[in-house]
Amino acid sequence: MSASLTLVILMAIMYGTGVYVMLEKSLTRILIGFLLVGNATNLLIFLMSGRAGDAPIIAGGATGETTVDPVPQVLMLTAIVINFGVTAFILALIYRSWWLANLGDEGDDVTVDDEDAIEAEEAGVYHASLDEDDEAVRAQLEEAADQTDDGVHP
Amino acid sequence: MIFALLTFFGLAVLTPFLTRALGTRVFSLVALLPAAVFVYTALQSATVLDGGVVTEKVPWIPQLDISLSFRMDTLAWLLALVVTGVGALVMIYCSRYFSNDEPSLGRFAALLLAFAGTMFGLVTADDIYIMFMFWEITSVLSYLLIGHYTERKESRGAALQALLVTTFGGLAMLVGVVLLSVAGGSTSISTLVADPPEGAIVTVSIILILAGAFSKSALVPFHFWLPAAMAAPTPVSAYLHAAAMVKAGIYLVARFAPGFADTPGWMPVVVIVGVATMILGAWRSLRQNDLKLLLAFGTVSQLGFLMVAVGFGTRDMALAGAALLLSHALFKATLFLVVGIIDHDEGTRDLRQLSGLGRRRPVLAATALLAVASMSGIPPLLGYVAKEAVFSGLIEAGSAGDAWGWVALVGTVIGSAFTVAYSARFFWGAFAAKPAVAAADGGGASGPAAPATAAGEHHESHASRGILAAPIILTLATLALGLLASPLGSALESYADTVPGEGDYHLALWHGFELALGLSAVAIGAGSGLFAVRRGFARVQRALPPVVDASRTYWTIVHAVDRLAARITVFAQRGGLPQYLTTILLVFVLCLGVATALNRSWPTQLVAWDYPAQVFVAAAMAIAAVMAARATHRLAAVLLVGATGFGMVVLFAFHGAPDLALTQALVETVTIVVFVLVLRRLPRKIAQHNRPVRRRRRGMIGAAVGVTMGLVGFTALGARQAGGLGPELARLAVEEGHGSNVVNVMLVDIRAWDTMNELSVLVVVATGVASLLFVTGRNVTVPRLGDSRKRRQGSERGRLVGDPHTQHDAPDDRQHTWLLGGRTLVPENRSLMLEVLVRLLFHPAILVSIYLLFAGHTLPGGGFAGGLLAGLALIARYLAGGRFELGETLPVGPGILLGGGLLLATGTALGSLFLGGEILTSAYFEGDLPLLGHLSFGTSTIFDIGVYLVVIGVVLDVLRSLGGEVDRQQAEADEKAEATA
């Protein structure tokens, strides 16, 4: 299978830059990274159709030697449209989180440190409550077992 | 049987609603169902006891040989009678036990009913996987029922403990079940038992299955969950933890014993564990002061006894085991119900606080006395008959040279003596007159604190109101079946006879003076003696260290697992989203990097470029991508990303992919518009939070991913050996799909199934976008001019010019304006030029989009491209005329477009089914039309129309959410700001 070196390099660059942007905290940046990675992925699939050639539209009922493979194109066509859908969805998320959090000029950063602290705290509370439950069962059983009926005379 | 099961679960779903109307009376109503199933089972007696079976079978997963097969033989019949009979009685008891203000009564009733159905399914299932399924459902239901008092710590803890222990056993059992069914080549339990496979794997699987059975039936070392489970309401203890669920393990062993009792390891495991459980349970029972806990440890002890009996594997022992199972279910359920009544009426179940109850409640005492006597094995009750049978069977086995027979005999006689002792102590504790307690009562409540009681506040007497009915019926059954031992015995013999080997024992009240009778007498005598010296014995018990403390081990393990999980979570989950992404990407690079490093097949014919222009386009795209990554302004970043997208368009166009080029161009345009719609609200600059160090790290990760993906691309190219499917697909497209645009024919015909799924993804995405914006409720239609009249008469009015509805010349306005919605905009936001342009271009654009839709089959285009173009036309109208213009242009809600489109697509798919073809088969008729030329119209065209509509729907939904709704929220915010200012 032959391919164009240019396209492979372009794909690699787009992946690299896409990932670089995606690792930031701003949701807009993440979306931009997503778009770059999306385009790069499409390019990867596209590469699999080989060298440039004629469109897979049959004139006269037969395909020539130079007609390109239609399968990657079909895969990509729906991918392009779904990419759009997901982009719109992320945009709605960005807007919503900005609106709800009332971030104003601070923009759309995903919070990092506080959230984890809260999570850890919640986990701790959860553990504590489990431990308490276990302790209650144990107390219930042991208290009953440790005492005798000596207090009662038949 | 299947019908009965369906009814059980159907009624269980309805029960919470019925409870709302009926209160506690709902129990009497739902009790009818287990009662009916009891009658149904009883009606099968003639068939079953003749040695016949009742079977029902519905294929379920034929690939795995799993079917919903049910089979009622004698054993299943016996257990079905027990679970439905006791179930019905317990539910009747519940209707008196609970009051209408009991919290979560509906849930409780539904769970109890579902449990009865599950147990019935468990004992009648013949497919081993179906049996296992019911087995696990009982664990879950037991968890929910034990945890009924959700606000109590001990309830929650006990419920979780029971769940963890039984599902742990269940997991071991699942492995055993899979091994066994594979080794035996069948999933039918009856087949496996009739023709048992052999070998090391079978031995392992049987041990695993026994582990499951032991955990379910609370045998050592899993016994500790059962006493803790007494935190449940008493009816649950009586039903699940005496009569039904804990019997599941016993049932399973009884089911497997005829075929697998001679498996290596079976006998020692069953006898040792059974005897140990029997003695340990009874020992601990003697130390309890809470009547319910006393019974619970007694149950543990009896379950050990039962395990020895049903697992021993001789014909006589099987008979004895079946009888013992029945007798235990009857007397233990009775005793629990009695304790429930005592608890209710006296407000305590601590035997140190109860006194003189026997004189006050003679009927209750008599009921309990019969049950206790049966538990101790006193003639003429069923418990006596069964115990005699066990002793005889063990003596028989021992004399036949089986050493385990003697071991088991000694163990069970000792256990029986203890049983007599704790039985006596139970009755004494509950009913006897105790002067010390009476004196204490006279002086006020000075006794030790009562343990938490099920419903301690309710002191009113229930005796006259039928709560006694259930225990009395159960205890009378104990008496009657004891007297009718012979007919009962001959009924159960058809199960016992399935066990290979000799044996001619018959159940009877009187077998003459023989060793078994002597042993019974010894047990009763020793037990009574033990009861007489109970205070001294209690001191001895306290002095001895605890032999087995399995619950402590359990707690240690559970705590360790909790701590480990917490530590791993804290270790793995820190640093937020970027950190997680980094982890994922590094793993990705590592795995794929290693894989590509091992690769040896690189592409053979690599060219620098396909055509010179490619290099320039690629360079432009690369620069745009890098700049997009570095851009600090949102809009700049978006436009730069858009530039890479348009670069893709050029590459596609030069590469022989016109459809892709068309679609990508349209998508890029729509994306940029939507981006701008949202970003206009956000601050212009993207905040910079990442320190330079982080930036270097990100750069390195990005580079690593990029290089890896480049290598992956090379590898994939090199790995590809065969040529493409191109020519074959082209043939298919022309001959089968009647189109010459291969890509489009594949989308709507050859790969239509995928396209349909992708359409549903789009619908989900559109709905997601809308629901994120319209939080309070989804408008069915896009807002039109009329809708806004009220608002525009309000505070917003001043910002409007030339309102068509409030001015008198409104009708004329409709004719003298380019875009109706444009009137709603503030003047500085209006552009007449734009309005004119949009008005002139809109209809041609829609026409072109329809042309693209229909031409797509033969030329570049299709539903996706057409839909996007139409969407773009809508966008233009919105941009020029504002959000009301959108409704005026297309007075249909996006929901209708999305739903209609999906309906067309799925309709085409299903339509061919009705016409006798495979799903999504297409049909065609051809003809020549003016202007469009030769046209082939087929079902795939209808499918494409569906695609077209869905795409328009998505664009419209996005537009009215991110466009219109954002406008509205902005207007609202502005109004608020004005009002406060």
UniProtKB/TrEMBL annotation, chain A:
Primary site of residence: membrane
GO CC annotations, alphabetized: plasma membrane
Places the protein is found: Cell membrane
Keywords in alphabetical order: Cell membrane, Membrane, Transmembrane, Transmembrane helix
Record-linked Gene3D superfamilies: 1.10.287.3510
Chain segments annotated as transmembrane: 6-23, 30-48, 74-95
Topological category with respect to the lipid bilayer: Multi-pass membrane protein
Name recorded for this polypeptide: Na(+)/H(+) antiporter subunit C
Entry's family note: Belongs to the CPA3 antiporters (TC 2.A.63) subunit C family.
Highest taxon listed in the record's lineage: Bacteria
InterPro entries per record: CPA3_antiporter_subunitC, NUOK/Mnh_C1-like
